[in-house]
Amino acid sequence: MSSNTLYDKVWDLHWISKSSGGPSQLFVGLHLIHEVTSPQAFAAIEEKKLKVKFPHLTVATVDHIVPTTNQQRPFPDPLAEEMLSTLERNCSIHKIKLHGIGSDHQGVVHVMAPELGLTQPGMTVACGDSHTSTHGAFGAIAFGIGTSQVRDVLASQSLAMKKLKVRRIWIEGALRQGVYAKDLILHIIRTLGVKGGVGFAYEFAGPAIEKLSMEERMTICNMAIEGGARCGYINPDENTYKYLKGRKYAPQGKAWDLAIRWWKSLCSDYNAIFDDEIKLNASAIEPTVTWGITPGQGISIKENIPNPELLPKNDQQIAKDACSYMDLAPGSPIEGTKVDVCFIGSCTNGRLSDLQEAAKIVEGHKVATGIKAFVVPGSQHVARQAELKGLHKIFLKAGFEWREPGCSMCLAMNPDKLDGRQISASSSNRNFKGRQGSAKGRTLLMSPAMVAAAAINGKVTDVRKLFKNSKFS
Amino acid sequence: MNQDFPAGEIKTISGRSFAIKGDDIDTDRIIPARFLKCVSFSALGEQVFADDRTELKGLHPFDLKENKGAKILVVNDNFGCGSSREHAPQALMRWGIRLIIGESFAEIFFGNCLALGIPCLTSSKLEIKRLQNLVKKNPKLIWVFNLQELSIINNREVFKLQIEKGDKEMLLSGKWDATKQLLQEEERIKETMQRLPYLNNFK
Ligand code: SF4
User: Fold this and answer.
1) Co-location of A349 and A250 in the same domain
2) A162, A167, A201, A267, A281 from A272: Cα distances, Å
C-alpha cells in the first residue's frame, strides 16, 4: 500500500468517513460542471427536494455542444440551445458561477479552470468528464465522475470513492526537439497499455517531467485516463507556483506565502512508498502517431503499421479490428498516410503553447489542396492571447480556419464532424470508432505541431523535416 | 423497454441473457456522442449501440428478436472504457439490462453502473467464453443470479462470479444509492472543510 505520496496526503485530508471494505466518503474541493453531464443531476436534486450544498465550490462553463463558427444565440441546433439554456437556468437557480457564452473565460472546462487559477495543488477536483485528470498537473487529485456522482457532489460536496493504488512513472532524460508532451503520453500509453492504469493513480515524475511547462504537464495528465488511470498528477514545484501567481482565483497577499508553504509540504516524500514504479526515458521517444482505434495503438513516425499477427496475443484481436476499421495496410509506413481533415484544439492540446508550436510550423506555408484544417482555441482567454501574438493571422494566411472556443471535433457533439470515411490528423485524445462524428470516420492522434505538418503536406509527416526550412530551427 | 429500474437491496436477478463480444468496447460505441445531446436520459434505451446496430442492419444482438426482454449481458475485457458518461450505463439500463458479466470493466463505467444498482461481475476469460457460447446457443435459457452466493445458474450449469466485497455489500444492503448515505455525514463534512487550508485562506 502506498504511503507518504501526494496522493496519500491529499486523500487523508479530504476523507470524511470510511466503510469497511467499501468506498470512503471523500470531500470535493472543486466541482466543475458543463452542459452535457449536469442536467440530469440537477433534475435529480430537484426531484429529491435537495439543495446544492455549497454553490460557491461549483463552477460551470459550456464547451461540448457550442458551435465554433458562430456562438450567436439561439444556436441553430434546438437541442444544443436547450442544453445551454438548461445549464443557464440551473446555474441561476442554484447560484453557481457560470463562465458562459460571452464570458472572457468560456471554453473547454479543463482549460478554463486552470487558467482562472481555480485548480490548485492539494485540492480534490471532480467533474462529470473523464479528462478531469488534467487538473492533476497542479498536484491536485482530480478525477472524472458520472452523472449520479455529479448529483451527489451537488447535494453533499462529497462522493463515495475507493482509494486507488499509486504507480510512479519516472521519466529520465529530456524530450528532443520536435518531440512534445503529447508524444510522451502517447508513448507511455503505448508502453503500459490502455488498461495498464486501471485501479491506479499515476504519479508522473523525474527529470523529464520537471522540465515540462504547466501546459505540457496538463497534456500529460489529461491523457492519464486513456491509459486507464482515473487520475494522474505531478508534484507541484516552482513552475506550478509561477503559473498560478496572479491568476484570478489564486491566493493573494499573505495567503500566497502561506499557500506555497502548504503546497510544498504536499509533495511525495523522498521515502514515499508506491504500489508500483516504472522507469522510462524521454530522450528515446520519437514523434508518435496512433494508427488504430485505441490511444494505445501508437507508433513512432518511423515505424510501420503493425501486422496484427505479429503482436502479443492479447493485442491481436483489437489490432485486427483496427486494421479493418482504419483501412490502413499492415506493414506500410505511417508516415505518408493521406489525411482529409486537420484539427488543432481540445483539452489535451488547445492551449496557447500548443497553438504557438503549431504556428511555428505553419508560418510561411500553405495548407495542402483539398485539406480542411482548423484551429479551435481551448478558451476565450487562449483565443485572445493567441490573437495578441498574431497567431491567428499565421493560421489564416496558411489556409487554416480560426474558430471560437469549444470541444469542437474532439467529440463532435456540435457541428464540427468528420464526413463519411474521412481521416483526420487530430490533436485531441481519443481515436475511438465514430468519435469524431461520423460512424466511419477515422482519427490519427498526434501533437499539434504534427497536425500542422500534416496539414501542410496533406499527409502524416515527421514534423522535424519541416524544421529544416523553418526560421525557428 | 424495461422501465422498472433497480431500487433498494439487490440480491437476485433472473432473466434471459445474451452476449456482446469484443474487448475494449468503449462508451462511444455503447452510446454515440450525438445522443448525449439531451437533458433527460429517457430516450437513451432505444439508442444503445446505435452505430453498431445500423451497420449490422437488424442482426446486432440488441436487435435480435430472441434477445428482447433479456436482462443479462455477457461481455469481454475492459468493457465500458472511454468517457465517464453515465449515458452509457443509462442506455443499457433503459434498454432493460440489469446485470453485466464480463472479463473486466473500465473503472468509471463500473462505478456508474454501481450507482444505478446494476451489478457488474467478473469471471475468467475461459468461463466468459463458455458462458457466451452457451447463451448464444440457447437464448431462451432463464438464468438466476445470486449475489450472496456469487453465482449464476440455469437448470444445469453453475458459473462462479466475482465482485469486490465492498461493492457486493453496497448492492446487498441498498447502500449503492449514495446520496442519502452521504448526506448523513453533515457534521463531518463541515469538520473536513474547516481543516482544509485552501478553504480557510491557508491559515
Ligand atoms: S475537449 Fe474533448 S476530451 Fe476535452 S472535455 Fe471536450 S470533449 Fe472531452
Assistant:
1) no
2) 20, 11, 14, 10, 22
Average pLDDT over residues B159-164: 97
- All residues of chain A having their beta carbon less than 8 Å from the beta carbon of residue B195 are 13
Indicate the residue among A212, A245, A276 that finishes a domain.
A276
Q: Is residue B195 part of a domain?
A: no
Inter-chain CB proximity B198 and A39 less than 8 Å: no
Q: Name the DSSP letter for residue B69.
A: T
Angle (CA) A122-A128-A130 rounded to 5° is 75
Task: Please write the tens of the pLDDT for every residue from B47-63.
Answer: 999 999 999 999 999 99
Q: Give the C-alpha distances (Å, rounded to integers) separating A397 from A177, A362, A365, A392, A458.
A: 25, 9, 9, 8, 17
Residue B190 domain-assigned? Answer: no
Domain span at residue B56? 12-163
- Whether residues A189 and A303 share a domain: the answer is no
Instruction: Kindly provide the ipTM of the predicted complex, given to two decimals.
Output: 0.93
The per-residue pLDDT for A472 is 46
Select the more confidently predicted residue: B115 or A280: A280
Q: Does the residue A283 lie in any domain?
A: no
Tell me which of A34, A110, A226, A409 to substitute to probe ligand 1's pocket, judged by most ligand atoms within 8 Å of the beta carbon: A110
pLDDT above 70 coverage of chain A, percent: 98
Domain end point (choices A242, A276, A310): A276
Residue numbers of the domain that contains A190: 6-276
The CATH number that applies at residue B109 is 3.20.19.10
Q: A36–B36: do the CB atoms touch at under 8 Å?
A: yes
Alpha-carbon gap, residue B20 to B17, rounded angstroms: 10
Which of the four pLDDT bands, split at 50, 70 and 90, describes residue B101?
A: very high
DSSP secondary-structure letter at B147?
T
> What total of structural domains would you count in chain A?
2
B42 close to A (CB below 8 A): no
Average pLDDT over chain A, rounded to an integer: 96
pTM of model > 0.80 = yes
**pLDDT score for A47:** 80
Question: Do residue A198 and residue B104 have CB atoms under 8 angstroms apart?
Answer: yes
Asked if residue B191 is part of any domain, the answer here is: no
User: How far away, in angstroms, is A100 Cα from ligand 1 center?
Assistant: 16
Whether A332 and A202 map to the same domain: the answer is: no
Cα distance between residue A210 and residue B101, in whole Å: 43
Average pLDDT in the A51-57 region?
97
